[in-house]
Amino acid sequence: MAWWSRGRGEDAGRSRGERVSDPAESLGHFRQFVASRRGVEAYVEPATRITSTTVVLIAHDGEWTRRAYPAKLAAELGPTLGIPVYDVNQTGYPARMRAWTSRQRQAGR
């Protein structure tokens, strides 16, 4: 094996410790999050050299959850879950997400 071909297998493109999630498992988690909170919106984060495409769900109070999710399925989340879906590169993150994270840090969670 040549030195430049190392790491080109199935794990290429993922950072160490990044969990490969099952789309069905992630969808189940998303469904539970949407069902138990109000005002949920989805924000799709594009893949980078380090991470795969991820989706962040953000509730009305700023509580959020993130999961790796295939880009080709991310656009279908809106109709599937009945929530709006945004491209984070176009809209950015809502201020309520940062405020919720800040409150959690201050509370020591």
Topology (SSEs and partners):
Elements: H1 23-36, E1 41-45, E2 54-58, E3 64-68, H2 71-74, H3 77-81, E4 85-87, H4 88-91, H5 95-106
Parallel strand pairs: 1-4
Antiparallel strand pairs: 1-2, 2-3
3D architecture notes:
Helix content is 36%, strand content 17%. The chain is α+β, with helices and mostly antiparallel strands. The N and C termini lie far apart (47 Å). The relative contact order is 0.17.
Name its key features.
single chain; 109 residues; alpha+beta; 5 helices; 4 strands; 36% helix; 17% strand; disordered N terminus
In short:
The chain is an alpha+beta fold.
What is the first-to-last residue Cα distance? 47 Å
What's the Cα radius of gyration?
Answer: 16 Å
Percent of residues in β-strands: 15-25%
The main β sheet shows up as: 4 strands, mixed
Shape: globular
Low-confidence stretches: 1-18
Class inferred from helices and paired strands: alpha+beta
Order of helices and strands: HEEEHHEHH
Number of helices: 5
Main sheet strand line-up: 3-2-1-4
- Assign a percent range to the helix content: 25-40%
